[in-house]
User: Which sequence fits this backbone?
C-alpha cells in the first residue's frame, strides 16, 4: 500500500513558566492512502497536538517541535520532511495537500466574512483562477456536503447558520483543494447526537469518493468504531496501542485501552458500578489472566430481578416532588418598538412526579429545555405558570425567606466544574460557606471538621482543604462541586450535565461516586444529560424532552428497548453504536 | 440595516431633548440677572430710573424673559400663573418668598401693586419736597424684603419721614396708610393650605424654553455678557480652528497607533513589542502641560539652540496671501500643538489595538485561516484586523466631542483661540451664554459620536444588525 505520511519519533513540547509539558512524546505512525486513521485518547493525551504538528500550526512559543520527522509523500518514493520546512513552503501545503476540520464549528469561521467567501479564499490561494469559476466550485462543494440551498449559504454569514451547517462549510473548506490528507479534530464533539450522526454519515460518504486519507481524532470510542479503519490509542503523549479497529475493540492488548473500553456505560444491561481505568492499569502486567473487558463489565452487572426489586421498593416510597403544568417562557421575537411579539417556550406545561430515593433521567438535545426545567424546579429560574410541590408545598409561592430555608434540602451540580468554583476562594472556604449559611450557630472548628469530612466523602484528601481550584483537574473539581452540594445535607440534587465536560474515564469515577452517595445518603436525583447511555445507567425512570415538552416517559430500560415516540427513536438511533459489542 | 439605523436615530432624538432640558434647567439656576448683564454699560447708572425701567422691559421682551419658563409648570395653588409678567428678577424672587410665607397671592398682589403705584406717584412729585428721596428709597427696599421685621422697620421709617414733611404727608399719607393696611391684611389673612395643593399650569408655546431652543436651532445662541456680541460670532472663529487641530491630531494618532499596535501584536513579547511598550508608556505617563511647556522652552527659544518653531498663535498672514504660503505658515505653527495632543493618544490607542488583536489572533477562526493556507500577512490584516477594529470604533464615540470642545491645556499654552481657550475665558468671565452654548454643543457631539460609532459598528460587524433587531 501507498504510504502517504510517515511520522517518526515526533516530540512536541510546551515550555511553561514552571516546567516542560511533553504534549507529544516520541510517537511514530504511518498513514496509508485511502485509509481512515482514528486517533483516540482523553483530553491532554496529545492527539490534537499531533494533528497541529502535522499541519505546522504549533504556536511557538510556547510550543516547540523538539525532534522527529513528519514525512509527506511527494512522488514515487519521494518524501518531504515537514518539520524543517520554511514557513513559506508550509503555507503552500496547508489547505492544499493538508486540510483540517476543527472541533468548534461555532467559532471556527470568521464572523465578518460570508461563508462562500471563506471557502472561495482557500481555492483562490492554491488554485488561482477567475472568481466566477471559483464560486462555481464552492457551490459544487456545498452541494457535495449536502448543504441545502448552496446559493443562500454562499451569501450567508456564519452566525446565520446552525452548528451542523457550519461544520459542513468547514468540511467543504478543508476539501476545497482535494487534499491528500484530511485531518478532522473532534469534528462532531460540539454537536448534538442527531447532528453528529448526519456529519458522520457525510464523512463516511465522502471517504468513499475521496482519494486521500483521513485522520479522525476523537475521544469517543463509539465514533471511532463507526468511522475508522485503523486506530491509534494515545495516553499522556504516547501511543500505547495501534492496530486495526477490530483488534483494538475485540482484542485490546494494553490495559489502558481495556480500561477505556470498559468504563463506557453499556447500553444493554445495568451495572452496580462502572469499571474504571485504574482497575486495569494497577493490575500487574505479568499477570497471565488479564481480565477481559466484557468479563469485567459482566462481573458488575445487576440482574434484572435485583433491578425489579429496587423499582418495586421505590414505587412504595412517598412522593417527594410533584411538578404540574410547569411553563418557563423566554421573550422571543421583538417588533420595531421592542415589544415582545412571541415567546420561546423553553418549558411548556411539563408535569411529572418523583418519589423519594428515585433517580429521574432527563434527556434531550441542546435547546430542548432540560436545563431550564432543572433550574425552574429549584426556583433558580422564574417560572411563568404551574406548580412545583416539594413534599406537598408549592415552592413557587414561598417567600424568599422560606425558600432559603428550603435550599438546604435541594442542591444542584452544574456542568462546567471550571466555571462553577470561585477561582479566588480556597476549597475549604468554598465548602464551609454553605455550612455557615444554613447552620448559623456552628462554630468554625466544627465547620472545618465537616468540610474535611466532605472532602473524604468525595474521595479527596484532607490537605486539599487549603488549595485553590486551579490546582485541581476537571474530575477533582467536579468532586469538589459535589462536596459543596452535599455540605448542607440535601435530600434532593439536580445534576445538570454533571459529567458532560469530563473525560470518559473520569466520567466513570464521578458516576460511581454519585451512585455510592445515592446509596449512602438516600439521595433523590434528577439527572440531566444529553448522553442517553449515561442517563440510562443512572436512572430508574427517564423523561425525553423535545422543544420544551416531554415526548415520552417511562422506566429507563423500556424507553431504550421499546421507544414509542419518533423523536426518542431518532435519538437512540443516533447514538454511535459500538459495532463490536454484541 | 435600515431598520437598525432608524431605531438608533429614534433613540438619538429623545436623548437630545433631555440634554436640552438639562442645559436650559442649569441656565435657570445661574446667579445674576441676565437682562442686567446683557445691558450695555452705558445704559445703566447714568440714565433716569424711568428710562432704565423702560430699557429693562424692552430688553427682557427681546430676550423672551417676560414669558413663562416652560410649557407647563407644577406648583402649589398659592402661586399665580402670571408671575412671569413681573420681569424684574429680584422683585419676582422676593414675591415668591412672600408667597412661601403667607400663601395668599391676592393680598400680596394688592400690596405689591400699591408699592408700584406709590412709586409712580412719587416720581411725579417735585424734587423740592425734602423727604421725597428718603421715602422713596425706603419704599423701593420694600420690593426686596420679605422678613416681617425688616418690612415693619421700613414702613415705620416711612411714617417717621412723613411726620417730618407735612407737605409730602398731605400728598401720599392716605396711600401709605392703605399700604400698611394691605400689609397687615397679608399677615391676618394667611392661607397656608394653598401651599400644599399641587396645581399644573399649561402655558402653551409662548415660553422661555421654546424661545431658547428655537433660537438655538436657528443658530442664535444669545449674546455674550462679556463683549455684548452674539455668541455665534465667538464660536464661528473658534470651532474651525479646534476642529482642524483635533482632527489632525486624531488622524495622526490613528495613523501611527494602528500599525504600531498591529506589529506589537504580531511580534508579541519580542524586542519590537517590548521597546515600543516602554517608550509609549513613558510618553503616556508624561503630563501634557509639562511636555507642551518643555517643547516651547526647548524648540522655540534660541538659548537652547533649537529655535525651530514659533511659540504661540497660528501666524498672522493676511487672508490675501497665497494659499500655499498661508498653509505652510499654519502647518509650521501647528507642529508643536499637534505633537502634544497626539503622543498620549498614540500610547493608548496602540495598546488597545495590540490587546484586541492578540485576543483575536488566539481565536479559532484565525487557526482556520492558517489551516487553509492564508499567509501570515493576510491572516493579520484581513482576518484579524477587521475583528480587532471593534474596540477602536467604540473609542470614536469619545473622540468626537473632544474634537469640538477642544483641548483646553494645549490651546491655552499655545495661545490658540479655539474652543478650549474660549471655554476657559468664558468661565473666567462668568459669561454664561457662552458656557451653556458650549455645553450644549459638546453634549450633542457626544451623542452624535455614539450614534456614528453605533453605525460604524454595524457596518464592520454583520452580527450587530442581526442581534439587535
Assistant:
Amino acid at each position: 500500500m501507498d504510504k502517504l505520511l510517515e511520522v517518526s519519533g515526533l516530540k512536541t513540547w510546551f515550555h511553561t513558566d514552571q516546567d516542560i509539558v511533553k504534549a507529544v512524546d516520541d510517537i511514530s505512525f504511518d498513514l496509508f492512502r485511502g485509509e481512515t486513521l482514528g486517533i483516540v485518547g482523553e483530553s491532554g493525551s496529545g492527539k490534537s497536538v499531533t494533528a497541529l504538528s502535522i499541519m505546522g500550526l504549533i504556536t511557538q512559543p510556547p510550543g516547540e517541535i523538539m525532534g522527529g520527522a513528519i514525512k509527506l509523500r511527494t512522488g514515487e518514493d519521494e518524501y518531504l520532511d515537514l518539520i524543517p520546512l520554511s514557513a513559506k513552503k508550509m503555507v503552500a501545503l496547508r489547505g492544499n495537500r493538508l486540510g483540517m476540520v476543527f472541533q468548534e464549528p461555532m467559532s471556527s469561521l470568521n464572523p465578518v466574512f460570508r461563508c462562500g467567501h471563506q471557502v472561495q479564499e482557500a481555492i483562490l490561494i492554491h488554485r488561482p483562477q477567475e472568481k466566477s469559476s471559483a464560486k462555481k466550485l464552492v457551490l459544487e462543494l456545498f452541494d457535495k456536503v449536502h448543504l441545502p440551498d448552496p446559493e443562500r449559504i454562499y451569501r450567508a454569514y456564519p452566525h446565520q447558520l446552525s452548528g451542523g451547517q457550519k461544520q459542513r462549510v468547514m468540511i467543504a473548506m478543508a476539501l476545497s483543494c482535494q487534499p491528500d490528507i484530511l485531518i478532522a479534530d473532534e469534528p462532531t464533539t460540539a454537536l448534538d447526537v442527531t447532528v453528529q450522526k448526519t456529519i458522520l454519515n457525510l464523512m463516511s460518504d465522502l471517504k468513499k469518493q475521496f482519494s486521500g486519507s483521513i485522520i479522525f481524532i476523537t475521544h469517543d470510542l463509539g465514533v471511532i468504531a463507526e468511522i475508522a479503519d485503523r486506530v491509534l490509542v494515545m495516553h499522556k503523549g504516547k501511543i500505547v496501542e495501534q492496530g486495526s479497529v477490530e483488534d483494538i475493540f475485540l482484542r485490546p492488548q494494553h490495559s489502558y485501552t481495556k480500561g477505556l473500553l470498559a468504563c463506557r456505560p453499556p447500553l444493554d444491561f445495568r451495572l452496580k458500578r462502572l469499571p474504571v481505568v485504574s482497575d486495569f492499569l494497577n493490575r500487574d502486567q505479568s499477570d497471565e489472566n488479564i481480565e477481559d473487558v466484557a468479563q469485567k463489565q459482566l462481573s458488575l452487572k445487576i440482574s434484572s430481578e435485583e433491578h425489579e426489586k429496587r423499582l418495586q421498593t421505590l414505587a412504595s416510597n412517598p412522593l417527594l416532588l410533584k411538578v404540574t403544568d410547569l411553563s418557563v417562557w423566554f421573550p422571543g421575537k421583538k417588533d420595531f418598538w421592542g415589544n415582545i411579539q412571541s415567546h420561546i417556550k423553553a418549558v411548556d406545561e411539563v408535569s411529572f412526579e418523583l418519589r423519594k430515593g428515585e433517580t429521574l433521567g432527563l434527556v434531550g438535545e441542546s435547546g430542548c429545555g432540560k436545563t431550564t426545567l432543572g433550574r425552574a424546579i429549584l426556583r433558580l429560574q422564574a417560572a411563568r405558570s404551574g406548580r412545583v410541590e416539594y413534599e406537598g408545598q408549592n415552592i413557587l409561592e414561598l417567600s424568599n425567606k422560606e425558600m432559603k430555608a428550603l435550599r438546604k434540602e435541594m442542591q444542584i451540580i452544574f456542568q462546567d466544574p471550571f466555571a462553577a468554583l470561585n477561582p479566588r476562594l480556597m476549597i475549604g472556604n468554598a465548602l464551609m460557606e454553605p455550612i455557615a449559611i444554613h447552620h448559623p450557630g456552628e462554630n468554625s472548628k466544627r465547620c472545618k471538621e465537616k468540610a474535611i469530612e466532605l472532602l473524604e466523602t468525595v474521595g479527596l484528601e484532607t490537605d486539599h482543604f487549603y488549595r485553590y481550584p486551579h490546582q485541581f483537574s476537571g474530575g477533582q473539581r467536579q468532586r469538589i462541586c459535589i462536596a459543596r452540594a452535599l455540605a448542607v445535607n440535601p435530600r434532593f440534587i439536580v445534576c445538570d450535565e454533571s459529567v458532560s465536560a469530563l473525560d470518559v474515564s473520569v466520567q466513570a469515577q464521578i458516576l460511581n461516586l454519585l451512585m455510592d452517595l445515592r446509596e449512602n445518603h438516600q439521595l433523590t436525583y434528577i439527572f440531566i444529560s444529553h448522553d442517553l447511555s449515561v442517563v440510562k445507567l443512572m436512572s430508574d425512570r427517564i423523561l425525553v424532552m423535545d422543544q420544551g415538552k416531554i415526548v415520552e416517559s417511562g422506566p429507563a430500560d423500556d424507553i431504550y428497548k421499546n421507544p414509542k415516540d419518533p423523536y426518542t427513536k431518532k435519538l437512540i438511533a443516533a447514538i454511535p453504536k459500538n459495532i463490536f459489542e454484541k | 440595516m435600515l431598520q437598525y439605523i432608524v431605531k438608533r436615530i429614534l433613540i438619538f432624538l429623545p436623548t437630545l431633548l433631555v440634554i436640552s432640558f438639562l442645559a436650559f434647567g442649569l441656565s435657570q439656576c445661574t446667579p445674576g440677572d441676565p437682562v442686567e448683564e446683557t445691558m450695555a454699560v452705558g445704559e445703566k447708572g447714568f440714565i433716569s430710573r424711568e428710562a432704565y425701567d423702560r430699557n429693562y422691559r424692552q430688553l427682557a421682551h427681546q430676550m423672551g424673559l417676560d414669558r413663562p419658563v416652560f410649557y407647563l409648570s407644577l406648583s402649589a395653588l398659592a402661586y399665580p400663573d402670571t408671575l412671569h409678567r413681573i420681569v424684574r428678577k429680584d422683585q419676582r424672587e422676593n414675591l415668591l418668598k412672600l408667597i412661601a410665607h403667607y400663601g395668599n397671592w391676592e393680598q400680596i398682589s394688592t400690596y405689591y401693586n400699591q408699592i408700584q403705584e406709590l412709586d409712580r406717584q412719587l416720581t411725579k412729585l417735585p424734587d423740592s419736597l425734602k423727604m421725597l428721596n428718603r421715602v422713596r428709597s425706603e419704599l423701593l427696599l420694600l420690593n426686596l424684603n420679605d422678613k416681617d421685621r425688616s418690612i415693619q422697620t421700613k414702613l415705620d421709617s416711612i411714617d417717621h419721614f412723613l411726620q417730618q414733611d407735612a407737605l409730602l404727608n398731605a400728598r401720599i399719607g392716605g396711600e401709605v396708610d392703605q399700604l400698611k393696611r394691605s400689609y397687615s391684611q397679608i399677615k391676618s389673612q394667611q392661607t397656608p393650605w394653598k401651599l400644599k395643593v399641587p396645581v399644573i399650569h399649561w402655558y402653551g408655546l409662548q415660553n422661555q424654553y421654546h424661545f431658547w431652543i428655537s433660537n438655538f436651532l436657528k443658530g442664535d445662541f444669545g449674546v455674550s455678557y462679556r463683549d455684548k456680541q452674539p455668541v455665534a460670532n465667538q464660536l464661528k472663529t473658534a470651532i474651525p480652528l479646534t476642529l482642524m487641530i483635533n482632527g489632525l491630531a486624531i488622524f495622526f494618532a490613528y495613523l501611527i497607533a494602528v500599525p504600531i499596535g498591529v506589529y506589537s501584536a504580531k511580534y508579541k513579547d519580542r524586542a519590537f513589542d517590548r521597546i515600543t511598550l516602554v517608550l509609549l508608556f513613558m510618553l503616556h505617563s508624561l503630563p501634557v502641560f509639562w511636555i507642551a511647556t518643555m517643547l516651547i522652552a526647548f524648540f522655540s527659544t534660541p538659548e537652547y539652540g533649537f529655535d525651530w518653531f514659533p511659540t504661540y498663535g497660528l501666524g498672522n498672514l493676511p487672508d490675501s496671501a497665497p494659499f500655499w504660503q498661508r498653509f505652510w505658515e499654519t502647518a509650521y505653527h501647528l507642529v508643536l500643538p499637534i505633537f502634544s495632543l497626539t503622543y498620549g493618544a498614540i500610547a493608548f490607542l496602540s495598546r488597545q489595538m495590540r490587546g484586541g488583536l492578540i485576543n483575536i489572533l488566539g481565536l479559532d477562526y484565525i487557526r482556520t485561516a492558517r489551516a487553509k493556507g492564508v499567509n501570515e500577512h493576510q491572516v493579520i490584516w484581513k482576518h484579524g484586523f477587521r475583528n480587532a477594529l471593534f474596540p477602536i470604533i467604540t473609542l470614536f464615540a469619545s473622540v468626537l466631542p473632544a474634537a469640538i470642545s477642544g483641548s483646553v491645556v494645549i490651546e491655552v499654552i499655545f495661545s490658540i483661540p479655539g474652543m478650549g481657550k474660549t471655554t476657559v475665558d468664558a468661565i473666567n468671565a462668568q459669561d454664561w451664554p457662552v458656557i451653556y452654548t458650549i455645553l450644549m454643543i459638546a453634549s450633542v457631539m457626544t451623542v452624535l459620536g455614539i450614534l456614528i460609532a453605533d453605525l460604524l459598528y454595524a457596518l464592520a460587524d454583520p452580527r450587530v444588525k442581526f442581534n439587535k433587531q
Summary: The interface with chain A takes residues 3, 7, 363-365, 367-376, 383, 386-387, 460-463, 466, 469 of chain B (CB under 8 Å).
